[in-house]
Design brief:
By secondary structure, the chain is mainly alpha-helical. The protein is built from 5 helices and no strands. The chain has one domain.
């Protein structure tokens, strides 16, 4: 099976993670609660925003590339979405769960972070499944 890396698709996937994260971690949803669990003051920036967002975009692009490398572009939207949900839950959320237990982080924080990544990879699956072949 040949895997074609469509750079535009990968960029759309990476940007989708930002859009989801911007809403998920906003003051309207889970941002204030997450900051409380993380011990972060939302009014005081943590690090230079350009570096934080740039490195995060790079990691999102790498995650999107890995997703496409593992699964290619399945023939059905259902399978692609299924792949995204499975990666988000069984790989990412469960891995965070292990780390959070050893770091003694609260369960609600795991649900916030894990929920975000579940949506991130579900979006990756949707984008790959809907992307023209």
């Amino acid at each position: 099976m040949g895997i074609a890396f469509d750079m535009v698709m990968l960029a759309v996937m990476a940007v989708s993670a930002f859009l989801i994260g911007g809403i998920w971690y906003s003051k309207l949803l889970f941002g204030p609660r997450w900051c409380t669990y993380a011990g972060i003051d939302m009014e005081k920036p943590q690090g230079h925003p350009a570096r934080v967002f740039g490195v995060s975009l790079l990691f999102s692009f790498l995650a999107a590339s890995g997703f496409v490398f593992l699964f290619g572009q399945p023939e059905s939207l259902h399978l692609s979405l299924h792949n995204g949900l499975m990666v988000g839950f069984f790989f990412v959320l469960s891995s965070f769960g292990i780390n959070y237990q050893f770091a003694n982080r609260p369960w609600p924080m795991l649900l916030i972070d894990g929920g975000y990544h579940l949506l991130q990879f579900a979006a990756y699956g949707l984008i790959v499944g809907l992307w023209p072949r």
